[in-house]
Input
Amino acid sequence: MRIASVQWDMRRPESSDAFFERAAYFVETAVADYAAKLVVFPEYFTLPLLALERRMRAIDGIRTLAGRTDEVNGRLAALAGGHGVWIVAGSQPVLRDGRLLNVAFVFGPRGERIEQPKLHITPWEREAWDVAGGEGLAVIDTGEVTFGVQICYDVEFPEPTRALAERGIELLVVPYCTDDRRGHLRVTRCAMARAVENQLAVVTAGCVGHLPRVPAANLHFAESGVFTPVDLAFPNDGIAALAQAGQEQLLIAEVDLGVLRASRGEGTVTPLKDRRRDLFP
Output
């Protein structure tokens, strides 16, 4: 299965239409040139749309962006249907019952729409934007692969991914948004650990570049990747593909699902089934 991770430059777009045209370009290229079955955008990748607005306080800006989430979802859903591909549309701010959530929307080729809210909220999201944590874990079955989504900070906690693995996911998708290399490494190293301990493939998609005039979202660093278990059937370092750090890029990787499934029963180590439930229920 070919997967495309969009490492997105957070530069100010010339217009809203130009922003969505760039998103469409990446989807079209991933499908037409590389036969990708899944395209992943980063967390909060629509923040550059705020650079088209008058400068405002961070708390007002994120709620303004939440007002465009339906438009964003409509555009990305149309791309999924038009190109016959699954799209993880990064994550978007959503206002519900007076609470601001950070939600990853997943769109399928036949009109499917699944939501995965961010469960664990970083201190700066709470302080700058008053984001609240959501609930629940979505399991998405495309017919070819079963996957789940963990947004950025969520992957730094082992429990959600383990719960998803026990519900049958084979692929974990991690849209993220970090301001520097330290933040990026926290997310990436934890993503690699989740791949080993749950015998999963993991794809990350992050933001890069500078975004002036948008408070709380001005710096971005990423080195997006596709990671595997570390065993004989996989790359020695567990890295199937890695983007160029700090540069916009369409990263393409192929995950052999047959090998992945076989490794769960026949790997050198099998941590998914060797868990000591008598000690750690």
The mean pLDDT is 97. The chain has one domain: 2-265.
